[in-house]
């Protein structure tokens, strides 16, 4: 029993890494991805509702537009964005993050995100 | 050999023409100085004189350096009989040149309270200007009159040097001249100067002729001529002295404001002394040519991934900046159609030539990039070996440029040339609250804040009636002005400006303080943010007086402000759901305004350290304009008082 619990604890502290490929959608002059981000090294991390560690200054997905390119690609609210097309997003300002996602010459962005999923952690520990 | 000499002679004569031109300008300035009666004219003429002299000196040194190089080459040729090439060894790759622009220079001042009591009667004023030099190119800024009502010296000029190498050294020199001396009075140093110049007149003239002669090849005589040429004709009139200087280089280049240290010469005893805080704030941007120009273009074939036998697509490739744009046809590029695809060519790209394809005779080029952990390789092929070689050369040159220009090649920095017209609401004095508020030294902090509170209330009423003092324009947004281009960058993303606000676009007379204001209508104002309060989050920062990121304030002021808040004025700030009444809002600017003014005098470093970029997330100490412009919208939109500051952006 104790080993199961410690295993469970280990799984809970792990996060799932996902690779998400989003094809930008053209709306008039703009290329949009269909989600919102929050966070950054210049923001107050205590206000982040999605982070477990309240000193985490990373970039989090705060909203996903229903039916938008991000939702179609599998991005979920609460995901923490680690990389965008190879660029690190764990130590960037909010505006740097926004800029890296909205480069005009890129049609596709490949995100590396981590997702805390209790369900999956429990499932893994059962196997 | 003849062609080398010809190009040398061409450069020589170019420089001599420039020297002649500057000497003529200098003569004109001297004549003007002698003729003018008004102090302002004299100061301007003296400024032109100094600029001309500095330019002449720079050209003379360049001439001297060229002659020295010529002599060295002749010596080398004679000694070993081989011909040395002009540009050095051929396998050394030279990085491309670029544009370097310096703008929004601001030098904070540090007046002591005793300054207020010196010089009974008229203000002690100095005329200041800056000389900016890169290599042989020298530019001067406009002249600014400085007196104790000014908190910063601001130069609005944007100065662009078009051909700078990555190892450039931008020398910034601040000259000042007391504007109260009586210039016509005879003085011993001047008499000496005139004696010297007249006695050396003949020999100076001879040496000057020798210097101008392209055949002269002795460096020492040129050096002598250069120093004798400088004092020139003795002039009566104001003289500028070097007050401070600094040198900037590639490591200081950034796409935002930065603060640099100044080396100060002179001391309080000098007539031209102005109490500088010791730093200069400016925006130094660079656009290397490899980022703005097409470095290479031509027809290429791109291998399609997968498929056997591999198929090739014809594209027209253009190498510019950190990208290789591949268009379907050349006409597409000229018509500004979007490219078919883009291959990144940046610091992390790896390029190599390969001989893999046994069918084609030409080599192919493989370009590898990392996209999100995966390596993506594009294989390109040119029409012939020579073309392939030219493309590889272009790529190597690009890598060389990027390694030399470093951070300038990450993203293209904007260089804006200022619009020629000045907005009508600009105050003639460079906006200072000291001007308007009478504060006795015996007043303590509480009296100061009370005075300011009353003043703001007065101004509230007055602005409602339509009249407002000139410095209110600090809090007003006006159309046009140098910040508009930056705003335009943000406006497509957030078309929602504040409703009910009579203000249109921001004007920042204090660029350092208000730089982040340009982004107030940021993405955080988009209608699609999650929480109901987030719409107004962008406005929240300035009112969050408890935010740890705020500039340091004097402790007594802190205490005073918190008691003011405790009394209920600040209650508006804490509760986001109460509609603020107009009476309780009046003190808010008072709380914020003294921060700005008093912290200006006590720690101007906080002014100049607002290094934040023009991003919506930049929060560094800008209480000055935001609360006032937000004041009106606060009355209408209660949720803007949300003191939380965690921005969200929609992408």
TrEMBL record, chain A:
Q: Which keywords does the record carry?
A: Acetylation, Cell membrane, Cytoplasm, Membrane, Nucleus, Phosphoprotein, Wnt signaling pathway
User: According to its record, how does it sit in the membrane?
Assistant: Peripheral membrane protein
The cross-references to InterPro entries, in alphabetical order and at most eight, read: PDZ, PDZ_sf, Synaptic_Scaffolding_LAP-MAGUK
Which sequence ranges form a coiled-coil region, renumbered to this chain? none
Pfam entry (one) = PDZ
Q: Name one GO molecular function term.
A: protein kinase binding
* GO biological process, alphabetically ordered: cell-cell adhesion; establishment or maintenance of epithelial cell apical/basal polarity; neurotransmitter receptor transport postsynaptic membrane to endosome; neurotransmitter receptor transport, endosome to postsynaptic membrane; receptor clustering; regulation of signal transduction; Wnt signaling pathway
A GO cellular-component term linked to this record: basolateral plasma membrane
Q: Where is the PDZ domain?
A: 19-116
Where can this protein be found?
A: Cell membrane; Cytoplasm; Nucleus
- Gene3D superfamilies in the cross-refs: 2.30.42.10
Classify the main location: membrane
Q: Which domain of life is it from?
A: Eukaryota
SUPFAM superfamilies referenced in this protein's UniProt entry, alphabetically: PDZ domain-like (SSF50156)
Name used for this protein in its record: Tax1-binding protein 3
Q: Which organism is it from?
A: Oncorhynchus tshawytscha (Chinook salmon)
Gene name of this polypeptide: TAX1BP3
